[in-house]
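Bumping my old thread because nobody answered last time. Still need a sequence for this structure:
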């Protein structure tokens, strides 16, 4: 099976996130969680829209520390924006969550690992949600080495997942999902 390249998908995702940040009044609700792991350091941001207003929180810290500090200077935001511009991006499949170590808990020297969890409800449009775990690279050589080692954990031919998945409509209030995902292994 062919490995799916998610570079363009991530660019489109960035456009949606930017629109949420720039035009929150167009949304009934939005909740955007992004966490990055780069060179043993982590960055996390949450943007949420309530009643047409945007609320943002940013934190950062070494992966070895449980409680990250608030990021008042915007270093994390810059790192996250840079992540969305990486030239080689792949997505992990659900199989990675069964691995002994989660990619977000390991210090990668060659990749930026990012999880993006978004739920959004635009006016007059059904609510949608997506949750993906990405590995991004600045160059093709590191990306090819990564694929050689982790190929069986990477999305191939758009495998639909239960815990990690592309956009899907969310259930309306009162409906019960047939599968309740357990995300204890994946911190956001």
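Sorry it took so long. Here it is:
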């Amino acid at each position: 099976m062919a490995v799916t390249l998610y570079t363009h998908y991530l660019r489109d995702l960035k456009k949606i996130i930017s629109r949420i940040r720039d035009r929150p009044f167009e949304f009934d609700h939005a909740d955007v969680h992004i966490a990055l792991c780069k060179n043993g350091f982590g960055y996390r941001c949450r943007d949420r829209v309530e009643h047409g207003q945007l609320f943002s929180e940013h934190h950062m810290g070494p992966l070895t520390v449980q409680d990250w500090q608030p990021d008042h200077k915007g270093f994390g935001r810059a790192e996250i924006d840079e992540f969305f511009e990486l030239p080689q991006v792949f997505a992990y499949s659900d199989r990675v969550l069964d691995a002994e170590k989660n990619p977000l808990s390991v210090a990668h020297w060659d990749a930026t690992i990012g999880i993006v969890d978004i739920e959004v409800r635009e006016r007059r449009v059904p609510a949608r949600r997506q949750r993906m775990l990405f590995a991004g690279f600045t160059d093709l050589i590191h990306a090819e080495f990564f694929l050689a080692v982790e190929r069986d954990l990477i999305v191939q031919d758009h495998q639909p997942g239960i815990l990690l998945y592309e956009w899907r409509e969310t259930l309306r209030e009162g409906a019960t999902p047939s599968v309740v995902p357990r995300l204890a292994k994946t911190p956001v």
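The radius of gyration is 16 Å. Let me know if any region looks off to you.
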